[in-house]
Design a protein that fits this description.
Blueprint lengths: L8 E7 L3 H12 L6 E7 L6 H8 L5 E3 L5 H15 L4 E5 L3 E2 L4 H11 L3 E9 L8 H6 L15 E4 L6 E5 H7 L11 H11 L3 E12 L10 H16 L6 H16 L16 H13 L1 H10 L8
Length: about 300
């Protein structure tokens, strides 16, 4: 906290081939009324050259070009480290396709300052029309009894997990729990982080104050084989890191799921329920898990220590 009396808040925007969205996201951030705000745009070595363009449009102190693509987990972990090194009190991770309201940061900070037991926060995510709650957010994050209309859903609500698209974290949470596990690279890392936060006795909450708009610009594009591999690998990895299971027992569950997936018997579960996952994705994901079993076991142990991954 500086002599302004306001906590220092860093906003991290991780770009990967999302030039137009990133610029629009940054523009919405420029209109935020909170004074003690720092912006850091990180380019994850985008092959389309968008990093170079962003570097020419964003001041040097607000832009970081990474030499390689370290994924959602690694890219944001780099941002976490820089923010913590610069005395951040709170860090907001924002996807490029998210738009923020001018009073958003002030609202979120007020909530987190009132209750130090909150380990992370999501604002309600609205769909691109700005009127209805994002369907995926409603289905995956909100309690099953919650109404779909934002005007009927109000207050501060404790939940079991949060989305990474607009994730507000106190610096103390990252220092205590750590950042995203880089083994995930992308997909599954926020669920893993949220589980670790809850195991430390901290709360995950959703607020209806200052909702964000999640445009999901890339949702309608063809999903690559690499993304489908990451989704399935992330699901396997998340289950293998389950601290409630012994490692050998978790391995037995993985072997069972892997065999069923090769046989196509889990078509109604993530990620099969929405995406055309093929046997090649299953085999690639399974082989990745087998090659990285030692690292997975080491990361399970790291989760029990203070502040891994940053």
């Amino acid at each position: 906290m500086t002599n302004t009396g306001q906590p220092i808040v860093y906003i991290l925007v991780l770009n990967y081939c999302s030039l137009e969205d990133t610029l629009a996201c940054v523009e919405s951030i420029r209109h935020i009324s909170y004074q003690n705000l720092k912006l850091l745009v990180i380019d994850n070595n985008s092959p389309d050259g968008s990093g170079k363009i962003l570097g020419s449009k964003i001041p040097d102190h607000e832009f970081l070009q990474l030499p390689e693509n370290t994924g959602y987990a690694g890219g944001n972990n780099t941002g976490f480290k820089k923010a913590l090194d610069n005395s951040a009190d709170y860090i907001l991770v924002v996807n490029p396709d998210v738009r923020l309201l001018p009073d958003s940061i002030m609202r979120y900070v007020e909530i987190l300052e009132r209750d130090k037991e909150i380990g992370a926060l999501n604002p309600i995510q609205l769909s691109a029309d700005g009127q209805s709650i994002d369907e995926s957010f409603s289905r995956s994050i909100l309690p099953s009894s919650s109404p779909y209309r934002p005007d009927l859903f109000s207050g501060l609500n404790e939940v079991k997990s949060l989305f990474g698209a607009s994730l507000m974290l106190p610096a103390r949470t990252i220092k205590q729990v750590g950042g995203f596990d880089p083994l995930f690279f992308a997909y599954g890392e926020e669920e893993d982080l949220c589980r670790r936060i809850r195991r430390r006795g901290l709360k995950l909450v959703v607020t209806t104050e200052a909702p964000v708009i999640h445009k999901r610009t890339k949702e309608n594009r063809v999903i690559s084989d690499f993304v489908l591999f990451l989704r399935l690998k992330g699901a396997y990895l998340y289950n293998l890191k389950n601290p409630a299971l012994g490692f050998r027992f978790a391995l037995k569950h993985f072997a069972r799921d892997f065999i069923h997936d090769v046989q196509g018997k889990r078509s109604n579960t993530y990620p099969f329920n929405r995406y055309p996952v093929k046997s090649r994705h299953v085999l690639r994901s399974g082989f990745w898990i087998i090659r990285n079993l030692l690292s997975i076991r080491q990361h399970r142990k790291l989760d029990q220590t203070s502040g891994p991954y940053v």
